[in-house]
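Single-chain item
Fold in token form
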Amino acid sequence: MPTRITATIDPARSRTDARTEQGQPISMDADPPEGDNSAAGPKEVLLAALAGCTGMDVASILRKKSQMATAYEIVVSGESADEHPKVFTTITVEHRVSGAVDAEALRRSIELSATRYCPVNAMLSASVTITHRYQLSGADGAVAEALVAVTGPGGARVAPKA
């Protein structure tokens, strides 16, 4: 079954108000001077979609592994080309997790999302190099950081286990 979005564009403001088939709203706006910066831009929404997709995967896998994070934040940043259409050339996804979570369980959960489950990552990886990392603040206060995987047009490369 196809995914369908209906969008209404205000041509005077360059604002787009979209709705999913279930009626959930998605608003986007152009940067000034075309828009009034009242909502996220389309490229920001794309990065948010990547964060949401991989975050839902990782949270679900961690729950199945009985790994309970007390906090979970994802920071996604994209570098854009200088020339139009100014596509993303690289994207970095950093999972910031706190709690009594095993580092290997977190690493494997991110790897599975990046290489198998997240369709947004798969679509973007067809043309953009995406680096997946984590920062884990354990219950004991120790902080661990690691590169997990790099996906992109050349396929996926998984970092060796720590």
